[in-house]
Each structure stands twice: as structure tokens, then as C-alpha cells.
Amino acid sequence: MHTQDRTQPKPGKPPVVNLKKPQTFFLANGLKVLVVENHKLPKVTFKLTIDNPPFAEDSKKGVDELCSNLIGNGNTKITKDDFNEEVDFLGANINFNSHGADASALSKYSGRVLQLLTYGALYPNFTQEEFDKEKAKLLEGIKSQEKSVPAIANRVVNALAFGMDHPAGEYTTIETINNVTLADVKANYSARFAPENAYLVIIGDIKYKEVKPIVEKLFGSWKRANTPKITYNSPQNVPFTQINFVDVPNAVQSEISLVNTLHLKMADKDFFPAAIATYILGGDYNSYLNMNLREEHGWTYGASTVIGAGKYVSKLKSTASIRNTATDSAVLEFIKEINRIRTEKVSEEVLKNVKAGYIGRFVMQVEKPSAIARYALNVETEELRPDFYENYIKTINAVTADAVLEAAKKYFLIDNTRIIIAGKGADVIPGLEKLNIPLFYFDKFGHPVKKPTLG
Fold it and tell me: Residue 455: pLDDT above 80?
């Protein structure tokens, strides 16, 4: 059993954080560029992000993942080996995916590193050979996870919470990967790797007036694609609390997840209260769930809660891997702790310590260029106030116990929650049936089935 640091940082005087505002400009193709000069160290960081809405891939689920894995695996400007050798020689770091790219380097090499980034991102060379390699890897990964209880649980959680026809609910299978061709990957790239929803954040030892013409030259010829905008119906939470059970006969413990969907935006006034409520319920060693399920009962190595926030619908998920014999008891304790945070005000001491932890982590992040890039991007893409991060500490300190209670009531919808359990039916179904919670059965892919035969 791994040990965790149980000490809490003691609240002190809140530090003052000065975040420099980016200087911005647009290219004619729609690319928005944000530059934050910081001459403390001779380094520069580039982050290109394509902020497209999520989309469903249906029978070809996996095309975007394959596209992601292939970008940067060769380009039409220089050979793959020459590219990799030069990146190594410059001591740079460059990464690509289907939603952008990022790079970091010494500032004296910044012009060439940005050029290499554009080679990989804007001029990819999608070859059949590389495609076959990446496809084989993905298929191997799926096969290796076939009997994994956590993998089955994650798949079913999303499929049931969001619906299989929703971008967040669909999943890759051997069949969907085998449906994808190299032509599909190329079409996916052409339709979606486009500048109209793109942001380039540049941070570090670089001058705005010097980098602007370089960016205009390197990215000016990137063509718009008029990426399709597709909307999806919002997932509906269940009308009553229920257990959704997946029988996995090889399971040595039960994967229990309590899930409801929500739409929490970072700009919402209850964003911080909801985040703090989540942390108190299942965010660290001292959380309600961990102290109950791990410390008091010894049923698990750890329990946790995560909440999604952003432009699109997301989920609240409380989860733990629980000993088979304790599965039914643990379900009741999960419900008890979620009800507790919805009905009882958190103590001032717990609230103070959680706030101090949040502030401490934020202050550590503020020193990192990658975090500054993320913050600058969030202000743009999440429609945050320009002073959102400057006021971060003040906003957290202003959160009250009443606000935490209200946020928990609003988002932790225990009366509309799916309790999704992947476990060994023969061992745990008899106990679950005694809980008087409606029980429904699903297969490993989230399709409804009859109750398994227990033998």
C-alpha cells in the first residue's frame, strides 16, 4: 500500500501573482497568435492548439487517434531521420497530435524550431507504411485490454453516461479500427487541422516585433478548411439512482463508479465552489471518500472524485476499486458521503486547508511556461475574464462553506446517478440485490443484457 503525505500546507499570507498579458495578432486565415515576452531565461515555448468541437466517428472510431499518432511521423519538407536528428541536435522538444503541436527550445534556436514545428504540423507525410504500423499498435493495445476490468469499467461508464452516439460515449473496437483507411486519416486531417479555430501561444525570451513576421511567413499559407460544426443532444441523467452491473468473471475486485453528467463552465460563478466540493469529497488523502473507504474500512487502496469543466458537457465521477466481499457495503458508503457533502456544511478548517492546497499548487504552476500558455489559451477558448488568473487566489479565498454546499447540491446529483459496477457477478450480485436499488445488467460494451447466470 503506497503511503501518501498527510501533511497539509498551513495557510499563510496569499502571494501576489503577476501574469503578463499576451500581445495578440491575427493572420488572414484565422489563426490567433498570443505572445508573452519573458526574458528571465533564454528559452522559448510554442503551443499550437486547434480548438475544434468534439465529433463522433461512428463506425470509424479511431480515425482521429490514428491521425494524432501519424502527425509528426514524417513530413514532406525533410526526411523523418533528418527531422529527428536536428531536433536532438538543437536540444529541442517537439510534439504533435491531431489538435495541435508544442515545442520548447533555447531562444537562439527559436526560429528554426518553429519552422520545424510547421514542417511536422502543416506538411505531414501520411504513408501507408507508417499507417499500418500505428494501426497494428492500436489493435495490439485493444487486445491487451480485453480482460482488463478498469478498461471495461471506463468504457461502460462513458458509453452509459453520454450515450454511444455521443463523442464522449463512443469507443474504439477492433472492428472500428479495421474500418479506418489511410484515406480516412488524410480526410480527417484536411477537414479538421485548420487555422480558423487555431491559437498559437508563444512564451519566453522572444520579442513580439521580431516573431510576428516569422509567424506570418511560416503560417500564412495554411489554408482554411471551414471545419464542419456538428451539434449533439445533451446526455440525460437517469431519472432515479440505479446500479448498472457488468459481469466480468475474472474480476478479483469490483470497479465502482458513481456518475452523473453536468455542464460546468470555467466562467461560471460556481466553478471554484464545485471544484473545491469535488476535492473535499474525493480529491486527496483526507477526502471524505478516502477516509471512509480506505482508512476506516480498508476496502480499497484509494477512492477519488473528478469533475469535468469546460465548454462541453462532462461528468462527475466518484470511483474506487473495492474488495469483492465489500462491494454492496461500499455502494452504501459512497451514497452516504455524497449525501453528506450535499447536506452538511464543510468545516471551516477543512475548507481553509483545501483552499491553501489549491493556492499552493497554483503558485507552483505559475512558474511554468506550459501553464502560462494554458492560462492564456483558457482565457480565449473558455471565454474567461482577462483577469481570471490574476484574481485566482482572491477568488478561491472568497469561496464560502455555503457556496460549496450549494455547488454540491447542484452538480452532485445523487438521485440521478448511475452506480456502474464491473465485477464478478457470482460473488457480488446477491449482496447488491439486497440493497433495494434498481439493478440493470449490461455487457462489456454497455449493451443491456439479462441477469447473468450465477454459478
Answer: no
The answer to whether the pTM exceeds 0.85 is yes
Residues 285, 279: Cα–Cα separation, whole Å: 10
* The three three-digit cell numbers of residue 287, written as one number: 477526502
- Please calculate the CA angle 52-58-59 and round it to the nearest 5 degrees: 135
Domain 23-219, CATH:
3.30.830.10
Does the pLDDT value for residue 7 go beyond 80? no
Give yes or no for residue 228 having a pLDDT over 70: yes
Q: Per CATH, is 242-449 categorized as 3.30.450.70?
A: no
Q: Which bin fits 110, alpha (ψ -120 to 50), beta or left (φ > 0)? A: alpha
Q: Where are the domains of the chain?
A: 23-219, 242-449
- Of the candidates 220, 159, 225, 157, the one whose C-alpha atom is nearest the C-alpha of residue 187 is 225
The half-sphere exposure of 388 on its side-chain side, counting CA atoms within 13 A, is 20
What residues contact residue 370 under an 8 Å CB cut-off, 6+ apart?
45, 47, 102
User: What are the cell numbers at 94?
Assistant: 517537439
DSSP H stretches of helix in 235-382: 271-282, 288-290, 327-343, 348-365, 369-381
**The amino acid at 168:** A
Query: Comparing 23-219 with 242-449, is the CATH topology the same?
Result: yes
Are 405 and 209 in contact by the 8 Å Cβ rule? The answer is: no
Percent of the chain residues past pLDDT 90, beyond the cut: 91
* Dist CA 337 CA 334 (whole Å): 5
Per DSSP, the three-state class of 26 is strand
Angle between helices 271-282 and 348-365 (to 10 degrees): 110
Asked if residue 214 lies in contact with residue 223, where contact means CB atoms within 8 angstroms, the answer is no
Confidence label for 1 from pLDDT (cuts 50, 70 and 90): very low
Q: What is the mean pLDDT of residues 367-372?
A: 89
